[in-house]
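Write out the 3D structure for:
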Amino acid sequence: MVRVHPDPPFKQSKKIKLVTLSIFVFNRAMKNNVEWLQKFIWFSEGVILAAIALATLFAAFMELERMIMVQVVDLSDLFLLFIYAEVLGMVGIFYRDKRIPVTLPIIIAITALTRMIVIQSKGFDGINIIYEASGILLLAVSAYIMTMKDKISLSKIKLRKEASAAESQEQ
């Protein structure tokens, strides 16, 4: 059986040219829109982080007000205030460096798990404390690995810059 292609070869080349042209136009249009989209995303991220900072400040003031009203400060309250301070620090670092180091959310999670252990240590099953402590250990190991990765990466970048500077001086 002989198969006949639905379009003759000269029409196929016109279709291919049309598809190629439309892909080119689409890519060019997307490149311009990507810049706009990227600016919009950066702006949105800044607005969301400002909202996080304001909400964190509000929550911290509410917690301080509660502690003043009750006139009791527990260890779990201090851990909560420390979490608020870390979140504010993370937002501040983002505005300064335009990036959030991976270790900061890990440290916040460690503090939150520590607070849970302090709150739940009375009257709860001991296995839950072991699970939470294991989570803290896992997070601490991952924070250490990420810190070492950053140091190794930074030293590699420094070595590459020094090598390229030495090569350029030789030439």
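The radius of gyration is 28 Å.
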